[in-house]
Amino acid sequence: MPLSRAYVARLIAELTGIPLGILFTIYLVTGFQMLYPDKVWLLPRPRALHVDKVLRVLALILALLHIVAGIIWICETRIKNRMIRTVIEVVTALFLAWLYGMLLIVDLLS
After folding, report:
1. Where are the domains of the chain?
2. 3 state DSSP class of 93
3. Dihedral sign, Cα of residue 35, residue 37, residue 42, residue 45
4. Closest among 47, 44, 43, 23 to 35, alpha carbons compared
5. With pLDDT > 90 as the criterion, what percentage of the chain qualifies?
6. 3-state SS of 52-104?
7. Helices (H) and strands (E) in the chain, counts
8. What is the reported pTM?
9. What is the mean pLDDT of residues 39-43?
10. CATH for 5-109?
11. CB under 8 Å to 43, separation ≥6 — which residues?
12. Distance between CA atoms of residues 59 and 107, nearest Å
């Protein structure tokens, strides 16, 4: 039995949700540790974790996958007209790929 696009998109969104939550929690905690160094002591070397390029690129890639998969899943389950659904999915994916491409370029060159 072939897997539907909605099922694969939902699976991708579910699989990227937990790592995104963990990464964003790390960014939130390290940000508070840098603001209040004498009150919050949860992670060692908060500045190194907060500005790490690998974690930022990983967060960007996971966020892009999560958003695109979520939009595809919503379109596949809610929009019945196939042409409108495809146009919305393609335009959204192209816009997000362009936006996240620019963010990656800025992030890697800084």
Report:
1. 5-109
2. helix
3. positive
4. 47
5. 60
6. CHHHHHHHHHHHHHHHHHHHHHHHHHHCCCHHHHHHHHHHHHHHHHHHHHHHH
7. 4, 0
8. 0.84
9. 82
10. 1.20.1300.10
11. 26, 29, 30, 33, 49
12. 12
